[in-house]
User: Fold this.
Amino acid sequence: MSRFPGVDLLELDALLTDEERLVRDTVRTFVDDKVKPIIEECHREARTPLELVPEMGALNLFGASISEYGLPGLGGVAYGLIMQELERGDSGLRSFVSVQSSLVMYPIYAFGSQAQKDRWIPKLASGEAIGCFGLTEPDFGSNPGGMRTFAKRDGDGWVLNGSKQWITNGTLADVAVVWAKTDDGVRGFVVEKGTPGFTSSDQHGKFSLRASTTSELGFQDCRIPGDAILPGTTGLKNALMCLNQARYGIAWGGVGSAMETFHTALTYAKERVQFHGQPIASHQLIQEKLAWMATEISKGQLLCLQLGRLKDNGRLKHWHISMGKRNNIWLARECARIAREILGANGIVDDYPVIRHMLNIESVFTYEGTHDIHGLIIGEALTGIPAYNPPIRDEKPARRTEPAPAAAGARG
Assistant:
């Protein structure tokens, strides 16, 4: 298998540090050597490649931004490059790492007690334990504030009732970070596998993210101890903080998916011969498509790089992340479509990765905030008016001061 050479028309490598390039190249090699040889089989069989989990743990891909517990404490750009390369392999694999890192380890690390952190962070970092994130419900995706899952105090513990849908890793998880309404507002809870009243079942019939496990979680009079609550959680804003961590990585992941479909289309166009013994890459129509893809990928790379630098400087805002997620997943979707056109009939068979990426990106386009909802988040930043929650007529619109409530998707 040939090595992926990267896509760097603007010589952006020169803007990366030595550490950032090392991280990217390490994960790039892992994807080429370990992911790509098995991922089509996993897609066909609709199974998560769990055999890769221990090695990803050994490479410190889980919780890479954390600096305690022997983890590397990588900066935003280095973390983003991990997500880029993993999604170049498969969106489902990036989802696995993103959920484990941003939606499970991050809330436990940021909002958990010392005992919760000491128990779970090392296990999640090594891959000994798998986690999931329960926010989205069957009736509430883009409006997570409407959730019905409720946790009621009962003696020295809690009783949890409700359900969560489109949960990545749900039936695989040893621990779930679950968000529920309480009499004191929305709080986060750590719920362990095997707790009586806690059930999970897989979503079947998926044509997208087939190499990822997607589940429903159920809580029926599920009794959890008093110390299961994440003590640092004080409202829905904490769940949205987790989603912002994940969406940031998704913006980078979109570039990775686009790079893979572009590279496949470029290689194919130079090898496919039609009309008087010439490769189709010699035709103007094909070159225009390739030029469009390369230009948009370059713009997406620049956007990600700036997001990463802002993140490392503590200046990254939630609408910046929305811009990155919205633009770069649209970019990946368009590149997959154009690559499919260039490959012709070969674009629909899994001898090539294009159709798999094309199917996967449809889920990524929706989850972690839909394309349209992210447009409204950017619109609010521009106008000061939250259009996703319009004010009553004749009432002065209030400017929202916390992240917009966009949470649709298969991540919980």
About this structure: Residues 236-271 form the longest helix (36 residues). The chain has a mean pLDDT of 94.
